[in-house]
Every structure is written in C-alpha cells, then in structure tokens.
Amino acid sequence: MTVATHYMPHLSDRIEQLQESATIRMAKLSRELKAQGHDIIDLSLGEPDFDTPQHIKDAAKKALDDGFTKYTPVAGYTELRRAISYKFKRDNNLDYSVDQIVVSTGAKQSIANAVMCTVNPGDEVLLPAPYWVSYAAIAQLAGGVCREIPTNIESNFKITAAQLESYITPRTRLLIYSSPCNPTGSVYTHKELREIAEVVKKHPRMYVIADEIYEYINFTGEPHASLAGFSDVKEQVITVNGFSKGFAMTGWRLGYIGAPLHIAKACDKMQGQFTSGTCSIAQKAGEAALLSDLTECRKMVDEFRKRRDKVYALLCEIPGLKVNLPDGAFYFFFDVSAYFGKSYKGEVLQSPEDISLYLLNEAKVALVSGEAFGDRQCVRMSYATSEEKLTEACRRLKNAFALLT
Ligand code: PMP
Ligand code: GLU
Description:
Layout: H1 13-17, H2 22-35, E1 41-42, H3 54-65, H4 78-92, E2 101-104, H5 107-118, E3 124-129, H6 133-141, E4 145-150, H7 161-167, E5 172-178, H8 190-201, E6 207-211, E7 237-242, E8 255-258, H9 261-274, H10 280-291, H11 295-316, E9 331-335, E10 343-344, E11 347-348, H12 352-363, E12 365-366, E13 368-369, E14 378-382, H13 387-402
Parallel strand pairs: 1-12, 3-4, 3-5, 5-6, 6-7
Antiparallel strand pairs: 2-8, 7-8, 9-14, 10-11, 13-14
Helix pairs in contact: 3-10, 4-10, 5-6, 5-9, 7-8, 11-13, 12-13
Bound molecules: 4'-deoxy-4'-aminopyridoxal-5'-phosphate and glutamic acid.
C-alpha cells in the first residue's frame, strides 16, 4: 500500500480562529476529572438538574408510535409553530403569526441563524458585557466585529439607554442581549426596555436579538418584559426562546424565534441548507410542553428560588467576595477581584481564570471564569443542582479562599 507523504493536516481560518465554548470546555474538564476519581462538584454548565416533566416525555413516546419519524417542514411542524404563536400571545402578549416563527435545533441555532442572516463582514455587533459566551463566537463567525458595552456589579450588570446610544455607529447592525441574563441573572424591567427601545427606533438599520430563554426563571414578581412588545421597534426585534431551561429539555435541542417575516424566511432558508429542521419527536414534545399548563415549570422555578436564597446567604459569608442577588436565571456571577495578587503555594492568582482553575484543583468545584463572558472581575456559578451539593460547594469555596494569602 502506498502511503501518501504529501498530506498536511489543515483547517479553515474560520475554525482556527473560533474559540471553544468556555462553558462546554469547563464541563468537559470536570467530567474528565470525575472519571479519574476526583470528587468534583460541577457548577459550570447551565443545565437544570430536573428531569423533563412526564407529560412531555409521554408526548414524545406517542409521537414515535404515531409515526412522526420523517423530515418535518424546515421551520417546524405547523402545529408546533401554532403552539408557539399561542404561547407568545399567552405569555408575552406578542402577535407572531405561524410564518414568523422558525423552530431550530436549540436556541443556540436560532441565534446562529439570526446572526448569519443579519450580519455582513465588518458590521458591528453590540454585546452588553457580561454576555453569554456563544454570542461573540457566532458573531465573529459571521465576520462581525464585536463591541462590548461594559457594565459592573454596582449597576447590577445592566446597560442604560444612554450607554447604548453612545456605542452606536453607522456600522452597528445588531445588539444581542439576554434577560433574564446568562451569566448575571439580571432582569431588565419594562421601563428600562422602553428606554432602550427609544434608542433602537432611532437607528432603523439596526436589529436586536432579544434572548428570552430564561423567561420563566424570574423571581422579580413582575411580568417578563419583551422588547418586541413595543410596537414601534417590533420590526427590528428577533425574539429568541426555547425549551432547554424552563422545561428542563436541554438534550431535546429545541429552540425558536419570532421575527419580522423577511428574517423568518431568511432563517428558514439558512436552516434548509444546514439541518433541514430539527427532530420530529422533539417537536411533538415541545408542542405538548407549550399547550399544557405551567405547573411543573413553576415547581422547578420555586426550587431555583430556594436554592438562590440559600446560596446567596452562603456566598455572602465568604470574605472579600462581592455578590449580588440575581433576579432570574440560575447563576451567580460574583466578583473575586479582592483575591487578585494573593497566592497559594507560591503561585500568584491574577485573574478570574486563575481563580477558577485554583478552585477546581483545590476545592474541586467547577465554575466558569468571567473572561469567557467578557468580564475580568467575576466567576460564574450555576446553581441548577441539589441544595446539598450547593451547600457543600460553598463550604469548599470558603475554605479554599481562606487558604489564599
Ligand atoms: N441563550 C442563552 C442565554 C443560554 O444560556 C443558552 C444555554 N444553552 C442558550 C441560549 C441556548 O440554549 P439551547 O440551545 O439549549 O436552546
Ligand atoms: N447555556 C448553558 C451555559 O451557559 C449551556 C452551555 C452552552 O450551551 O454553552 O452554561
């Protein structure tokens, strides 16, 4: 057999330049350490620990038995899109017709579709920082130039309308934000979004991706506010949502957009070349999730709130940390900068990345460094796990921080 000697492994510039997802990298690292026998408490990945509610699973089983095993329309079954249209009206008072809705393989793909369909190389994409890791990576894949709008724990990690205005240039094409926010848990109020809408409407070339995937996990007691609810900017807004968080359906890979018709059509075309649409069985399960009442979902949210309160009290006991009480999602994003310059066994810790690696090795607790989210002070902790594990994790963190001198 002749062995080719001229072969040189090579990849595209695009993939060489792409950053690996930091949340997924940290989850992989802690899985590897667990497999080696280490007792790791993994608080890295944003994934509910609850199982998918039974009635949703039953709908999936029925879908299989009923023969829903073929390609679906690229944008999703009409019945599912009708259920989404109903959900938008029921929960958000938003009017999206079936043809304005595109169902995808997770909200992650919904965002990727929307970015690919709106951003040209060189266009500026505004990211209030800290932002969810994949926004920047996806925008860069589209050739976009990311511009971070900085916030800090003192402002509860929220941008103001005036700040947004000062970042807009003739090249600004897109703003991407999440509320409730991953990684900070912050929630924009109706009034704050109204002010943001005032700025957006002055810039008709600009679109906004409003990522509402944590909509149900909101502890403010106020109704969830949607930017698309302001009719004067609705034509500029792409509303993203999904099933992973509220219905504990991460593995089903199901997300969707409600968007202006021309954007929905573009995303349908994009997806027709990439995936031909998402899994038929997951779609039937998603339809059941939206059409049933939200009792199961509310039970999970109550549990998240209890854990949040517990973890908040425990984190506040650790000297030096700055912690805010998150209003939604299931993350703490706390400031560890008081520990920069401190050392352990002669090694000086200078950044959130150093601190998260130290905590992984010494406390055996996996968190995610703020750097991946565009922040240089904080680390992210997911509290989507049992109270028992969270209590033990906070005990370990307290001990590990106390060892730094
Ligand atoms: N947006 C945000 C803010 C998220 O945290 C996630 C978490 N995975 C997603 C989108 C994507 O969710 P999925 O693809 O699982 O629907
Ligand atoms: N959104 C979750 C997180 O931020 C899941 C991981 C991911 O999809 O990147 O941890």
